[in-house]
Write a structure and sequence with these properties.
about 120 residues, alpha+beta, two-stranded antiparallel sheet, 11 strands, elongated
Length: about 120
């Protein structure tokens, strides 16, 4: 009840040659979001992995990140109301989980078959 069901994350894209043109699709079981690199945005917390796929006209990159269990909020819920209501609400909203931030998505150059010269 104190951590909220949304979390702010930032995506970094190492080796990105067109950062201003890059867009990233972020998805977990709670929803999908479109974001630009290096800008903080909110995602719905989830206890399952989140996929991140970034692309621009020259490069792509993707990764999957798993959330970490944050036991600190269980202790707070125990102190708040002995976990009678708060643990149920926080468990339903996935408040006990947090994704790492920043999320690094290394970019690689797209090579089209017609671009390969022998």
């Amino acid at each position: 009840m104190s951590n909220g069901d949304f979390q702010n994350v930032t995506i970094t894209t190492p080796n990105n040659s067109a950062n201003e043109k890059t867009r990233c699709k972020v998805a977990n079981e709670e929803g999908e979001w479109i974001a630009a690199p290096d800008i903080q945005f909110g995602v719905h917390r989830d206890g399952n992995p989140m996929t991140v796929t970034c692309q621009n006209s020259l490069q792509t990159g993707s990764t999957s990140v798993s959330p970490q269990f944050d036991g600190e909020y269980v202790v707070l819920d125990l102190l708040l109301d002995l976990c009678v209501i708060s643990c149920f609400v926080d468990g339903y909203n996935n408040t006990f989980y947090a994704y790492p931030t920043p999320i690094s998505v290394p970019m690689v150059t797209n090579i089209q078959p017609d671009q390969i010269h022998n």
